[in-house]
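Exercise: predict the fold of this chain.
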Amino acid sequence: MKIIWAPWRIKYILGKKEGCIFCDKIKENKDRENYILLRGENVFVILNTFPYSNGHLMVAPYKHVPDLDGLEKDVLTEMMGLVKTCTQILKKALNPEGFNIGANLGKVAGAGVEGHIHIHIVPRWEGDTSFISTVGETKIIPESLDDTYGKLLSAL
């Protein structure tokens, strides 16, 4: 058996679990430092700091709710509109060949932040490592978060 070391995972595994990362970051008003790409009326877009792939974005409402039932129709509509905007920005900035888009509702479904609903937009390329990070604790991110954030910001 081969062992592939993934030391960056320990920060996530042992990281602070109290509070809500989405609520905390949105209140700080440090968009660049927190990789917040866009703020809408009811929702915002943030770059995932533990991405599955380069450019992995998340769309989350300002309202702290665990699932779709807690959101009004206008918030849901705005969320999906920003998901579409995210795919357009990613196409322009990173030229992916496809996307995985979805939400993990509840711990058993794989939610890392189960109390605050969010939608993942994961850009994909032929030959990328897919979801090996989920099953093999391994990932290849070819670019720094700062560089990716800059590209996405210029694509707005």
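Check your answer against the key: The radius of gyration is 15 Å.
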